Amino acid sequence: MAYKRSRATFEADLTAQHSPYVVYGTPLPPLDPDSRHDPSYLPVWQQDVTDEQGRKRLHGAFTGGFSAGYFNTVGSKEGWTPSTFLSSRTNRKKDAPPAQQRPEDFMDEEDLAEAEEARKIQTVDAFAGLGSTAGEQSQEDMFMDILKTSGETMGVKLLKKMGWREGQGIGPRVRRNARLDEDQDSGGGSDQQMHLFAPENSSMITFIRKNDRKGLGFEGGERLSEGKGFARTSKPADPASDDDQESTVFGVLKNNDKTKKKKPGYKGGFGTGIFNDNGSDDEDSYQMGPSISYNRIIGGGKKKKKKLEASRSSANPLLNSKPVFISKKAGAGKASPGFRRCYDGRLPLDGFVFSSNSDPLSSILSQDGKYPPPKIPPGWKSSKAPSNPTMTAFAQSTYQSPANIAAASKLSPKSRAALLGETLLPGKSVFDYLNPDARARIASAANNSNLPPALSEAGAHHSSSHPRTLSSLIPPLAKETALTALSRGTAGWMPYAEDPSKRSRYRLFLEIRAGLRPEGILPVRAPGASNDDWANEMNEFAHAAQIFKPVTGIMASRFTSSSSAPKLASDNVKLDDSTGVERGSQLLAQPTAKAKTPAEEAAAVGMYGPLTRSKENFYPTRLICKRFNIKPPAHVHVDPGDVPPEQGNGAPPQRHSTAMPQKNLELVGKMDMDELRMSGGGMKRLGVKVEDEGGGGGEMGGGRGQRREEDGVDPERNEAMKERPGDEIFKAIFGSDSEDDG
Amino acid sequence: MKFPNRQVTTLSGHSGAIHAVVYSCGTGQYILTGSSDRSVHLYNPSKASSSTPKSGLIQAYSAHGYEVLDLAVTDDNARFASVGGDKQVFLWDVATARTLKRWSGHFGRVNCVDFGGEGGSVVVSGSYDATVRLWDCKSLSTKPIQVLEEARDSVTTLQVVGHEIVTGSVDGRMRVYDLRMGMIFVDVIGQPITSIQETRDGNAILVSTLDSTIRLVDKCNGQLLQSYKNHTNKDYRIRSCLGMADSVVISGSENGKLYAWDLLEGKVIEMLEAHGGKVASAVACNGLKKEWASAGVDGTVSVWAMPE
């Protein structure tokens, strides 16, 4: 890029470099105008504006002008794609959510590149904390956290979860009057309603570091400034309290909510009138300076100090909790005249002292024998006694190992599982069906005594353990099986078609097993059948239900039921007996009429409408939509760049693809023709009237043309193909293209 | 109701059965006929007289090698398409009488053709090979833009109305391809369909079937609105049409008669004898005047107008 210099500089430079001999006039520019390795000056009108990829950005009107789209048109090779018409009635533009615009929408690629450059990759601070010097501060905090809590402690968190809030005391709620005004005497409004309040907050004791050189407890000038006045008491409302004067050696008693509204602790000053007189006589209204009396005599003031302390402690009950230093010797001496020992005869640990007043429990314990526990009156029985006598027995019996108990119990794993309500394990062992003798034989044969116990279940089934009732003879059948078998019956087919009474018995059996009939009903037995016959029939029914229950799932969709029920052998026999003609007519191969779809049946009876209408998806290609000047439907996702439009098709409309092999297409068409001929031609074959008047090509009605073809020789047609099953079967088995639509 | 039952003139000139007759678009001044003599004729019925043969014949278009089965004219009357037994779709220039395009791709004879799209940019053809093919007039491509293979049997008739392609097939199903919605609405009529025409308001479709019945089917739900009977149509493709501003249904018959029904009542209002008792294969109504034309396998076109 040429940087600009002044003309004079440029010319001087040029003259010096290229044409040192030119004295008059302006020298010619360098010979090769294309070589711009040197930062030679370019006039503005010769400078090109290019982007970083060297593309020319500005086009003059005479050098090509604006170039866009497809050969300077909006649109593409196939023309202009219209935008969709949006009816303003139903789909208003203003109702639509405004399109979210981002800054990136207004940036060209250079701006985007800049923005990309401006981004920095960096780690999150917390991640960088370990090992980098930048995070030293946080590292410090990390170790400081061990010693000192920051933020909320876990206790505070727990309390807050339990409903405590900052500023409240801990404990059960207290019923008291509402303190609406701090200045008001709490006892004043006796007629006020009582409310539940959180208990008063107990104050924390804080110690104030003394970093001045004033005397202990001196806080002279600070009294005048309200802001610095330490809140020293929780009872500022008590005018008689004198302990403002007292020094707070151990710190301040802070009560947050009261500090701010505390009356300024002015004790004197000008303008104190009669109303300021609070009745205490010994107070000097005009006292200057702190009212602390210094001890001027060493040792002399000790008595007084103690007295002060005593008075203070009595004045403020909270001061009871102040830690009081008691010297060891003094404490020990005060506690007991002699050495007291612990119960085990040892001295207490260092730093611990015996309490002077003993707690009641310890006193009871200490005075053993003096207050024995009350005796249980004879004949008393606990109401909490276990009701189960066996449990009591267990409890009373001596300890037994679990293995012993297990060995003693008569419960098998199965019965135990039943007691516990567990689901039984599916499998059954052989030994469940063996009787103990057989098991013993096996054990001796196998030289293995560690065999599962024989349960002889099968024996139990058949033998006397069950009462031999009629209902027990009915074989079990899963309810679902019975239901499905029944549903198959309702769908149109049921076994025992040749014997209606047997069929009705079968149906009744299924209904009983499906739970559709009440429990007690027994299946009807055939007239003149013995119990065994009846039981056999029931077993047969159970088998039939297992076999003839309809196929479900994928298999069901793969098969279609044949339109006609299989002819029974008995039917044929009957026909044969009666008339041979009928028998013969059966042998004649009759083309079966193509099964009519429900829609066709509906159309045949004239029920046009929803029954005869069906919808399918349709995938018009983009080019079609463009030609029809419509927007492609939403489910057509064809990239117009994928396939050249001359090829005709986009990818998804599989069923319309021209890529289908031509032979295949023709074959399918022929097969369909055959089908139609079978359906239509079979019925009308005898009635075909050859129309001569039409003369050659006069008839092109589909039906007519086909029938003609059929009359002639058709090499494509095979007699064996007459029995060709329905197209749906092939479709279902080999997969149909209509599945792709879903 | 007055029905144009006066035979104005007879257009002759074809040496074979006429399978298709259409009026030109707009004023309907001209009649185009397609015949099994492999030619397409352009007539001016107002210049024709029954006495002189080939009177009123303006142009004969001959390029087909087989019979011509259907014709379609563009809106600007500049081009027309013809299809027939030679498995090809011909696009003609009306003025120069030369084919602009010949698309081949069907595997059987082509039964029906219509123009679609903006300015007739797409030619839609239905064939005996059970497919409907859409051809692009604007490109030089020789392949169809799309092939509709839903029909299970020969596609005998189709009509393109706006963004919908209505097809009728021998499989007894009428299919409405809605390009805008991307849906196919299949209506089972139950009998092989020979002719389909949508009403002008687009609410109903007139369907002729091979059970000698013409049905008016509600387009939105497939219900039967009216059926028209009494004519004979069992073997041949006989075209029916709506006329007189969709108030009359007109159809030919296999016994050479022409029937006209009242659209709403379903009653025969007119029965005319024509075409020498031979099959009256096609009828066409003038869009502007109260005039219609019928074509028969006798090779003539009868033009009917209001009685004087």
From TrEMBL, chain A:
<feature type="region of interest" description="Disordered">
    <location>
        <begin position="218"/>
        <end position="266"/>
    </location>
</feature>
<feature type="region of interest" description="Disordered">
    <location>
        <begin position="168"/>
        <end position="195"/>
    </location>
</feature>
<dbReference type="InterPro" id="IPR011666">
    <property type="entry name" value="DUF1604"/>
</dbReference>
<protein>
    <recommendedName>
        <fullName>G-patch domain-containing protein</fullName>
    </recommendedName>
</protein>
<dbReference type="Pfam" id="PF01585">
    <property type="entry name" value="G-patch"/>
</dbReference>
<dbReference type="Pfam" id="PF07713">
    <property type="entry name" value="DUF1604"/>
</dbReference>
<feature type="compositionally biased region" description="Gly residues">
    <location>
        <begin position="695"/>
        <end position="704"/>
    </location>
</feature>
<feature type="compositionally biased region" description="Basic and acidic residues">
    <location>
        <begin position="706"/>
        <end position="730"/>
    </location>
</feature>
<feature type="region of interest" description="Disordered">
    <location>
        <begin position="85"/>
        <end position="105"/>
    </location>
</feature>
<dbReference type="Pfam" id="PF26093">
    <property type="entry name" value="HTH_TGH"/>
</dbReference>
<dbReference type="GO" id="GO:0006397">
    <property type="term" value="P:mRNA processing"/>
</dbReference>
<dbReference type="GO" id="GO:0005634">
    <property type="term" value="C:nucleus"/>
</dbReference>
<feature type="region of interest" description="Disordered">
    <location>
        <begin position="21"/>
        <end position="41"/>
    </location>
</feature>
<dbReference type="GO" id="GO:0003723">
    <property type="term" value="F:RNA binding"/>
</dbReference>
<feature type="domain" description="G-patch">
    <location>
        <begin position="151"/>
        <end position="221"/>
    </location>
</feature>
<feature type="region of interest" description="Disordered">
    <location>
        <begin position="678"/>
        <end position="742"/>
    </location>
</feature>
<dbReference type="InterPro" id="IPR000467">
    <property type="entry name" value="G_patch_dom"/>
</dbReference>
<feature type="region of interest" description="Disordered">
    <location>
        <begin position="635"/>
        <end position="658"/>
    </location>
</feature>
UniProtKB/TrEMBL annotation, chain B:
<dbReference type="InterPro" id="IPR036322">
    <property type="entry name" value="WD40_repeat_dom_sf"/>
</dbReference>
<dbReference type="GO" id="GO:0005737">
    <property type="term" value="C:cytoplasm"/>
</dbReference>
<dbReference type="Pfam" id="PF00400">
    <property type="entry name" value="WD40"/>
</dbReference>
<dbReference type="InterPro" id="IPR051980">
    <property type="entry name" value="WD_repeat_MORG1"/>
</dbReference>
<comment type="similarity">
    <text>Belongs to the WD repeat MORG1 family.</text>
</comment>
<feature type="repeat" description="WD">
    <location>
        <begin position="61"/>
        <end position="102"/>
    </location>
</feature>
<feature type="repeat" description="WD">
    <location>
        <begin position="11"/>
        <end position="44"/>
    </location>
</feature>
<dbReference type="InterPro" id="IPR015943">
    <property type="entry name" value="WD40/YVTN_repeat-like_dom_sf"/>
</dbReference>
<dbReference type="InterPro" id="IPR001680">
    <property type="entry name" value="WD40_rpt"/>
</dbReference>
<feature type="repeat" description="WD">
    <location>
        <begin position="103"/>
        <end position="136"/>
    </location>
</feature>
<dbReference type="GO" id="GO:0071013">
    <property type="term" value="C:catalytic step 2 spliceosome"/>
</dbReference>
<dbReference type="GO" id="GO:0000398">
    <property type="term" value="P:mRNA splicing, via spliceosome"/>
</dbReference>
<keyword id="KW-0963">Cytoplasm</keyword>
<protein>
    <recommendedName>
        <fullName>WD40 repeat-like protein</fullName>
    </recommendedName>
</protein>
<keyword id="KW-0677">Repeat</keyword>
<dbReference type="InterPro" id="IPR020472">
    <property type="entry name" value="WD40_PAC1"/>
</dbReference>
<keyword id="KW-0853">WD repeat</keyword>
